[in-house]
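COURSE: Structural Biology Practicum
ASSIGNMENT: Worksheet 4, Part C
STUDENT ID: 0417
INSTRUCTIONS: Below are two proteins. For each, the amino acid sequence is given first, followed by its C-alpha cell string. Answer the questions at the end about the second protein only.

PROTEIN I
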Amino acid sequence: MSSSFLLKNIEINIYINIILPVVLYGCETWSLTFRKKRRLRVFENRELMRTFGPMRDEVTGEWRKLRKEELYDMYSSPSSIPVIKSRRMRWAEHVASMMEERGEAYTDRVLVGKPGGKRKLGKTRRRWKDNIKMNLQEVGWGIDWIHLAQDRDRWRAFVNAVMNLWLP
C-alpha cells in the first residue's frame, strides 16, 4: 500500500475489497462503544492518509497533511460506522426470522443473553439488542423491532431507508 508505483485507484480498490472486509468481519454482532468507534475512525483515517499522502498547498507551495474532510471527499465511500450499522440491521432481520423458526426460547437466549465477565462499577455493559434499539431511535423509530423484522417487505424497506440516511 505504501508503494509509489501503485495508482491511487488501485490502492483504494485494495483497501475496499481486501482490507475493509477483514477489518469488518463479524461486525454485525459487535457492540459498538465510543472507544471502538474512535479506534475504527483512527484506523480508517490512517489508511486514507497513507493512501493519499501529503498534498502540496497551492498558496504557499509547502507540503501538508490532508484534513479529514478532504480525505473523505477524495475517498467518496462511506465510513465504516454506517456500514456496520446497516449490516447490523440486516442481521437483526435474520435473528427475528430465526425466532419464527426455532421458537422464542432459542432467540431469547441470543437477545437477552448476559455479557460474560465481571461488571465494572458504573454503567451496565451494552448488549447487541441495545445497539439495535439505539440505531432505531437515531432514525426515529421507537417501535418493537422484532415484530417489524418478521415482516420482510416492511423491514427491507425500512433497512433501505436507514442505509440511505446513514450513507453520505
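PROTEIN II
(use this one for the questions)
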Amino acid sequence: MLKLYAIVAVLLASACGTTPDERPVTFEFVTLAVLAPSCGQTQCHSTSTNTNGYALDTLDAARATMKSGRLTGQRLVSVLTDTGENKMPPDAPMAEEDIALIQAWVDAGRPGLEP
C-alpha cells in the first residue's frame, strides 16, 4: 500500500509541471547560456556592432555593459518582457524560463557580475 501512495505522489508531482529551474543563477551562466545566443548575435548586441552601446556576446563585454549603468538588470528584464515595439529580441520572444532565470539573477543581486 505504501508503494501505491509513493507512485501516486510521483505521478501527481510530475503532472503539475513545476519542475524547478536548476540552472545556476550566475552572471556567467546568464551571459553565456542565455544572453549571448539570444542577444549577442553579430547583427545585434555584439562587440562588433555594440547596438545602443550594449554588447552581450562575451563575459567581458556584458560585464562592461552592465557595470557602466547603460543596461541595468531591471532594464534588461523590462525589454525582454515588453509587449510593444521595444521588445527584445525583436524577431522572436525569449523563452519565459530564460526571462525568469534572468529575473532570479537580478533579484539575487546579480551574482558574479563583479570579477
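ANSWER KEY EXCERPT:
Q1: The chain has one domain: 25-107.
Q2: The radius of gyration is 18 Å.
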